[in-house]
Design a protein that fits this description.
2 helices, binds zinc ion, single chain, 21% strand
């Protein structure tokens, strides 16, 4: 079974999924819509943490 992962933006936005690609996509969408920033896949992945 895949680990549940969480990604938290400094603004307080948080997304949880077992699908890392989905986390990355949602984070990129959030960064663009809420912060007007384009972030790379690497930047998004750097924010991902495993949820215990
Ligand atoms: Zn944010």
């Amino acid at each position: 079974m895949t680990e549940l992962k969480s990604l938290r933006c400094p603004c307080g936005f948080e997304v949880r999924s077992r699908d890392e690609d989905e986390l990355v996509r949602m984070t990129q969408l959030h960064a663009k819509s809420s912060h007007g920033q384009e972030i790379t896949t690497e930047q998004a992945k750097a924010l991902i943490q495993a949820v215990a």
